[in-house]
Amino acid sequence: MSRLAARLAEGLAALEREDLHRKRRVLEGAQGPRIVIDGLAAANFSSNDYLGLASHPRLRAAAHAAIDAFGVGAGASPLVSGQMRVHQEAEARFARFTGLPAALLFPSGYAANLGVLAALCDRHAEIFADRLDHACLNDGAILSRATFTRYPHLDLAALDSRLAASKAQVRVVATDTVFSMDGDLAPVPDLLELCERHEAWLLLDDAHGFGVLGATGRGTLEHFGLRSDRVIYMATLGKALGGYGAFVGATPEVIDWLVQKARTYVFSTALPPAVAATATAALDLLDEEPERIALLHQRIALFRQAAAQRGLPLAASTTAIQPVVLGDAARAMRASASLLARGYFVPAIRPPTVPEGTARLRVTLSATHSAADVVGLVGALAESLAP
After folding, report:
1. Contact 239/134 with Cβ under 8 angstroms?
2. Contacts of 305 (CB under 8 A, 6+ apart)
């Protein structure tokens, strides 16, 4: 073994000793509330498929029809010849659905945030990010070469003082709306007020809020009743919408600037046409079946009520993400294995995904979970965490 390979082997061994080595599990069949994973049947509480659309017949049919009409691949970047009618229709549909002036389809949420921040910012800019923001916002800030300033989680006073002290020509506040490991909400109205006062953009990553928050699933902006030209809004297609990719919504000037300058858009092959078609079908389905959102929140309330009755240590989350913080990575791994043995798959989340000392079980709920499965999970959790 070369010295280079030996160094990697030593690092991997250290991860194993610290219970931080991650392994891929193999799912048999489609994503859903019940799965077979590594050969074991289980109720699935690990997926971001919050509305149960990943295997919906309408989305499957839309994908098949798009393949028949447009083929499998786009064949080029959008600015060459990869922008097909199906992509254009999906962008227009997203703008109508959210009430935003214009929208742009990106290869992924990660690519969208990297592209937006690098397009808006340079060495003369400053980006302000919540300490618990998703990695893609942090990476986008670093790649932009702007001054990167992080503030303590949800600490508006600290953000206010940092914005006031900034001499940057361009300021951007970048935040998750629903924090992916804690499930708590950013105070978006207050953040917008700070951005207005300090002349800053507000980039909202609504990956875990779109399709979940708001009476009709239109996300954080609907939830808070907000509209502003300062907002640049990103929502993924791979979570509540059951597909893949992401949209960015903003004013026409912002969207056109991203078309010209966002490198993750300009230099990427356009998404497969079937992906765009399924996004449009998912938005149509949300319009027609808003009861899916109501049912999801019923399942969230049921889980929290049952957990409170069993004395389980839940975080203050009212979203589909319900973490059970255990602290120690080894304990989280043991609890996850115990749950799987009882027929429930809940992943253990460990550093560096979460801060040191906050390893956890991350329960994610779906509208397609049965009430019996939710109550059964709580009972299995109580047994698995018993001393």
Report:
1. no
2. none
Residue type, 121: C
Q: What is the mean pLDDT of residues 29-35?
A: 93
Ramachandran class of 209: left when φ > 0, alpha when ψ lies in -120 to 50, beta otherwise: alpha
Going by pLDDT thresholds of 50, 70 and 90, the confidence category of residue 387 is: confident
Determine the residue type at 131: R
On the question of pLDDT at 1 being above 90, the answer is no
pTM of the model: 0.94
CA angle 125/135/90 to nearest 5° reads 85
Task: Domain 25-53+290-385: give its CATH code.
Answer: 3.90.1150.10
Q: Is there a contact between 233 and 98 (Cβ–Cβ < 8 Å)?
A: yes
Catalytic residue numbers?
A: 180, 208, 239
**Alpha helices of the chain — where are they, by DSSP H?**
3-17, 57-70, 85-98, 109-120, 135-144, 156-165, 188-198, 220-224, 252-261, 263-266, 273-288, 291-309, 329-341, 371-385
Mean pLDDT of 264-277: 97
pLDDT computed for residue 201 by the predictor: 98
Q: Where are the domains of the chain?
A: 25-53+290-385, 57-288
Pick the CATH number of 57-288 from 1.10.3720.10, 3.40.640.10, 3.30.420.310, 1.10.260.40: 3.40.640.10
Cα torsion for 88, 93, 94, 95, to the nearest 10°?
Answer: 90
Question: Residue 11 contacts by C-beta under 8 Å, 6 or more apart in sequence?
Answer: none
Closest CA to 147 of 128, 163, 133: 128
Calpha distance 125→127 (Å, rounded): 7
Q: Please check whether residue 213 is in contact with residue 200, taking contact to mean a CB–CB distance below 8 angstroms.
A: no
